[in-house]
Structure formats: structure tokens, C-alpha cells
Amino acid sequence: MQVIQNCAVIGAGTMGSGIAQVAASAGLPVTMIDASADALGRGMQRIQDSLARLVKKGTLKPEDAEAITKRIKPSPELSEAGGADLVIEAIFEDEAVKRATWEKLNAACRADAIFASNTSSISISRLAAAVANPERFIGMHFFNPVPVMKLIEVIRGNRTSPEACATVVELSKRLGKNADRGQRLPRLHLHRVLMPLINEAIFAVYEGVAKPEAIDEIFKLGMAHPMGPLTLADFIGLDVCLNIMEVLQRGFRRSQVPPLSAAAPDGRLR
Ligand code: 3HC
Q1: Among the four residues 79, 199, 209, 261, which has the most C-beta atoms within 10 Å?
Q2: Are 64 and 143 part of one and the same domain?
Q3: Which residue has a Cα nearest atom 11 of ligand 1?
Q4: Are residues 147 and 198 in the same domain?
């Protein structure tokens, strides 16, 4: 197992800036890379706002917030990922764009670097085909808001090595997260369960069953969800949801009712 000492985060959006923040908060020097200067500026602002909340609450000292911010170097150049032990890609959920970015990173980075994608639905094995060492390629799926949510789904591709997996699981713990690596199947992610819920909620609005506010209220009152499925869809971003749904739609073919619901021996799933 390798102990990660520094990392590069590709993408300064909501997820990328959140990942940069938690990595820097764990003491790692971070290079946050985005081709857009505007996106880099917004990403740094988001990090400062998030740290300011913690300072205001009294859970972080102002000098620590400053040190965390200083550990993050914003850069527009992909080549700045060249010295990183770990590269985490958190760009738009589009397979072709991600693969093109990984090809460039593969040329720019060290041969022993670990490559992690924050993809929420695209197959890790397919993305890993863009790099020379697929055994060092893995999925690290974070949740929004990254500084708050405690889970990282660690997703192995067909060729991901046990060492790369152990390295990323160890790092996830240092970031203060639970690493769920129970799944061997590359695409068995949280979204496989969450997105059908959001999808049905959107259908319910589309078919005039209820207003968005009413659907959300049902989930908050009846199931203690912190936000209803439609607020959550907006929070994730409808464009992101659509991309994930399309990937899932292409990737899974199934009957309407899973046979297991009728066939579970004692009438329970767990
Ligand atoms: N940075 C730091 N802390 C933050 C924060 C941020 N960006 N956002 C919220 N917080 C903290 C607040 O300070 C507060 O802390 P406290 O309880 O210690 O005082 C706590 O989180 C709750 O925040 P608020 O009181 O401001 O607001 P809410 O109670 O409404 O909680 C929420 C906000 C945490 C976002 C909550 O609504 C929630 O949990 N929503 C569901 C989020 C969710 O499901 N995320 C997963 C989405 S799926 C995904 O990300 C996958 C990807 O592939 C798209």
C-alpha cells in the first residue's frame, strides 16, 4: 500500500472544490486544476465560504482555515498534476470528455500515480482503458456537500489492483470518510438506487400527480429525508441527474419487478 502525501483534483466545480477542501483539511497539499479561471475563482470562494461556516460554528480555528486554504493551489494547467501521488478527476459526467482528460493526464503524470475518478455512474473499467496502467485506476465517488457527507464509494474496475484499492481506502479514512468497498461490480453505485426514485418523482410531476413541493414534503415528513427527491435533484443538478439516468438506462436492462422481491426466502432482504 502507498501512503498518499499530496493530490491533484481535476475540476473546480461543487464536487472538485469540496474534494480539494477535505483533502487540504486532512493536511495534504492539493493542486486544484480547471481550465476555466472563473470556475477556479468560484471553487476557491466555495471553499472559503464552507470553511467560514466551520469557523463561525467554532469547530475550526481561523488560523487553521487559513492554513487549509493555503494548502490549495489553483491552476489552469493540467500538466500541474504531473507530480501528484493521487489524481482525482471530478469533471462533467460525460464519458468521452472524461476519457480525453484521462489520456492527457496519463501523458502528464508519474507512472506510479494513482488515478481516481469521481464518476457517479460510468464504468471504471471503461474509463481505465484510457490510461497505460489500469491497475492503478479506481473510482472514488464523493457526495455533496463533500465536507459534510461521510461516504466515499470506492469502486474497483476489472483490473484495479488490491494495492490501489487499499491505498484509496486508507486515504478515505484519513479524509474522515467511510469507504464502502463492498461491491465488486463496477457500477453498483448509490445512484442505481437513488436515481429511479428521483426519476419517478419527476414522472409524478410530469403526469400531474402532485406539485413538486407536495412530493418533497411526503419524503421529509414520511421518511425523514433531509430534502425531498426533487429538491435533491436540483441540489445535484438536473443536467448531472439526466446524464446519470442515461448511463443507467443504457447499462441496465431489467423487468419492472425484481424477482427477488417475491423470492426472498423469509420475506426479508436483510
Ligand atoms: N460546508 C461545510 N459545512 C456545511 C456545508 C458545507 N458546504 N453545508 C452544510 N454544512 C453543515 C452546516 O454547517 C450544518 O452543520 P451543523 O449541523 O454542525 O450545524 C449542517 O451541515 C447542516 O446544514 P444546514 O443547517 O445549513 O442545513 P440543512 O440542515 O438543511 O442541511 C444538507 C443541509 C446537509 C445539505 C442536508 O439538507 C442534506 O443532508 N441533504 C441531502 C444531501 C444529499 O443527499 N447528498 C447526496 C447527494 S448525491 C451526490 O452527491 C452524488 C453525486 O454523484 C451527485
Answers
A1: 199
A2: yes
A3: 148
A4: no
> Considering its fold, how many domains does the chain have in total?
2
Residue nearest to atom 38 of ligand 1 (CA): 226
- Convert the pLDDT of each residue in 131-173 to its tens digit: 999 999 999 999 999 999 999 999 999 999 999 999 999 999 9
- Structural domain contains residue 229: yes
Average pLDDT, the chain: 91
- Ligand 1 centroid to residue 104 C-alpha, Å: 34
- 3-class DSSP string for the chain: CCCCCCEEEECCCHHHHHHHHHHHHCCCCEEEECCCHHHHHHHHHHHHHHHHHHHHHCCCCHHHHHHHHHCEEEECCHHHHHHCCEEEECCCCCHHHHHHHHHHHHHHCCCCCEEEECCCCCCHHHHHCCCCCHHHEEEEECCCCCCCCCEEEEEECCCCCHHHHHHHHHHHHHCCCEEECCCCCCCCCCHHHHHHHHHHHHHHHHCCCCCHHHHHHHHHHHHCCCCCHHHHHHHHCHHHHHHHHHHHHHHCCCCCCCCHHHHCCCCCCC
Residue 29 CB–ligand 1 contact under 6 Å: no
Q: Say yes or no: CB of residue 227 within 6 Å of ligand 1.
A: yes
Same domain, 171 and 243: no
pLDDT band at 178 (very low <50, low <70, confident <90, very high): confident
The answer on 13 and 144 residing in a single domain is: yes
CATH number of the structural domain spanning residue 239: 1.10.1040.10
**What pTM value is reported for the model?**
0.92
